């Protein structure tokens, strides 16, 4: 809760909210939305100072601590965020009324969070000054949601600053699904973009000189073997969603790696929904798979042109004086720009945000369902199911690997996808097993995937070259296409020679989980 006007000495340690980034013009439009008619709200300045040790020990513990002026006194707020939590829907929060703006970590519930951290070492690290316009909405009886529009900036002692312009929806009372319903309603008339970074996270990035808009690889997910299957499934899905959302800002800015990481996140999410297919409601799963396919299509086109441009650059460097290669580079750059414009349109759409909100809403519904009991299979420990999940993926890949020499192009594609799904399953379930053996097998699998991936790139290149240089097209482009085809034909032949040995090693390698019956 960013609003601390009614803080009690020990507020309940739970915050349920959604944040959305908005341009200033869109924020003004939002305040004229019919849902807000006749509800002018309350406007006030929220000036907060964030504290940490010189070594940023709170940040290392995934905690943030701020002190905000509140009437004649102050309110201290300690927040905990679970790394990888999609859009930070739920976060631990502990508030404490103070008489002076100095941190106090003495209450037992705070000591439990900060451990042996010395409160005397805390010092100001950055400040935020936010003008907040907020009002309470009652979408149905028994439900209260605070809608807040925030404008302002975050600033470090060195003078670096970052603007803030966002919408926050916080559930004060009622069913959490009402929060998502309201967000989806607003999104239909004013496309929103979920904000995954808290003000504290943005402040730390500013302090450390980190690029908060940069593309991000997926962090490792550590599942405990005793975690119930239902909770493990939700954790994997949430991890994929966070990876997707954490990269959409980079992709919107045209960052090649941002597009790539979003595609990886979507592929992992799709693989997860397939892996746990038997445990998911079919209608819900089918709807999610359809939206993933839609998103992946637009991003996939941009990614194909990005990869092609990278390969083409290698040819152009080898033939720096080639007018044909230069013409092909120029034509490719134009196609790249168009593909990224289409990706930006997709990610700026209300449909993209609605997909993310539906997935988050489902996760929250699953948590509520688990709290009231669940099916025996879903309540069982993930450690007892992991072997069979991996076996299923392994058997499919192994069956194709045994016939590798006779596989046609379509079957090779299926083999590559089977290996990818096996690797994603290994990554997701790695915490259940001894880490060293998992890493070793994943590295071997990655090398085989890389070889197959390059051959797939070469096949994709053939199609893209056909678009750039059709038989009746410009002579220079056709000549450039012939040069690229010859160059990568040689590369593919070299890779093909090594591929058989990698497949043989895959077949001989003993899986790190219980040995399956391979027949």
Structure description:
- This protein is an alpha+beta fold.
- It has two domains: 194 residues, Hypothetical Protein Pfu-838710-001 (Beta Barrel), CATH 2.40.320; 251 residues, CHAD domain, CATH 1.40.20.
- Strand 6 and strand 7 form a beta hairpin.
- Helix 4 packs antiparallel against helix 11, helix 6 runs antiparallel to helix 8 and helix 8 packs antiparallel against helix 9.
- The protein starts with 14 loop residues before the first strand and ends in an 11-residue tail after the last helix.
- The N terminus and C terminus are likely disordered.
CATH topology of the largest domain: CHAD domain
Class from helix and strand fractions: alpha+beta
Number of helices: 16
Cα-to-Cα separation, first versus last residue: 58 Å
Question: Which percent band covers the strand fraction?
Answer: 15-25%
The tally of beta strands, per DSSP, is 9
SSE run: EHEHEEEHEEEHEHHHHHHHHHHHH
Low-confidence stretches: 1-12, 515-519
Please state how the strands of the largest beta sheet are arranged side by side: 1-5-4-3-2-6-7-8
By CATH reckoning, the class of the largest domain would read Mainly Alpha
Mind telling me the C-alpha Rg? Answer: 26 Å
What's the number of domains?
A: 2
Supply the CATH superfamily name of the largest domain.
CHAD domain
Average pLDDT, to the nearest integer? 90
CA-based shape: globular
Give the proportion of residues in helices.
40-55%
């Amino acid at each position: 809760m960013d609003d601390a006007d009614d803080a009690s000495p020990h507020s309940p340690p739970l915050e349920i909210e959604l944040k959305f980034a908005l341009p200033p013009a869109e924020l003004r439009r939002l305040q004229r939305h019919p849902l807000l008619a006749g509800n002018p709200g309350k406007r006030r300045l929220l000036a907060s100072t964030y504290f940490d040790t010189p070594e940023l020990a709170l940040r290392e513990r995934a905690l943030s601590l701020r002190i905000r002026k509140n009437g004649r006194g102050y309110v201290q707020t300690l927040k905990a965020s679970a790394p990888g939590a999609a859009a930070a829907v739920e976060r631990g929060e502990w508030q404490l009324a103070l008489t002076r703006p100095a941190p106090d970590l003495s209450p037992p519930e705070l000591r439990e969070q900060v451990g042996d951290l010395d409160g005397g070492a805390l010092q100001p690290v950055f400040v935020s000054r936010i003008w907040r316009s907020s009002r309470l909405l009652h979408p149905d009886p028994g439900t209260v949601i605070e809608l807040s529009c925030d404008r302002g900036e975050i600033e470090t002692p060195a003078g670096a600053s970052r603007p803030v312009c966002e919408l926050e929806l916080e559930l004060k009372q009622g069913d959490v699904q009402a929060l998502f319903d309201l967000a989806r309603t607003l999104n239909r008339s004013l496309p929103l973009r979920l904000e995954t970074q808290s003000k504290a996270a943005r402040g730390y990035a500013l302090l450390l000189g980190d690029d908060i808009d940069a593309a991000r690889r997926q962090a490792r997910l550590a599942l405990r073997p005793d975690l119930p299957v239902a909770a493990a499934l939700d954790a994997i899905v949430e991890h994929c969603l966070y990876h997707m959302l954490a990269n959409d800002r980079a992709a919107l800015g045209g960052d090649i790696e941002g597009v790539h990481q979003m595609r990886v996140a979507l592929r992992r999410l799709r693989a997860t929904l397939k892996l746990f297919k038997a445990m998911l409601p079919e209608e819900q799963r089918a709807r999610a798979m359809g939206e993933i396919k839609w998103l992946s299509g637009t991003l996939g086109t941009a990614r194909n042109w990005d990869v092609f441009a990278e390969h083409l650059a290698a040819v152009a460097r080898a033939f720096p004086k080639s007018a044909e290669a230069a013409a092909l580079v120029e034509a490719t750059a134009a196609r790249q720009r168009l593909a990224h414009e289409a990706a930006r349109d997709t990610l700026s759409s209300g449909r993209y945000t609605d997909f993310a909100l539906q997935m988050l809403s489902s996760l929250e519904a699953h948590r509520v369902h688990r709290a009231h009991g669940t099916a025996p299979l879903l309540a069982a420990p993930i450690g007892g199911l992991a072997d069979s999940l991996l076996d299923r993926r392994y058997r499919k890949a192994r069956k194709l690997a045994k016939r590798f020499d006779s596989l046609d192009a379509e079957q090779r594609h299926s083999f590559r996808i089977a290996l990818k799904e096996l690797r994603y399953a290994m990554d997701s379930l790695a915490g259940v097993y001894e880490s060293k053996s998992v890493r070793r097998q994943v590295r071997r699998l990655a090398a085989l995937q890389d070889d197959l991936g390059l051959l797939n790139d070469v096949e994709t290149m053939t199609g893209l070259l056909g678009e750039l240089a059709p038989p009746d097209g410009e002579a220079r482009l056709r000549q450039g296409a012939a040069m690229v085809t010859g160059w990568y034909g040689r590369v593919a032949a070299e890779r093909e020679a090594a591929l058989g040995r990698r497949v043989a090693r895959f077949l001989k390698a003993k899986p790190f989980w219980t040995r399956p019956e391979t027949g």
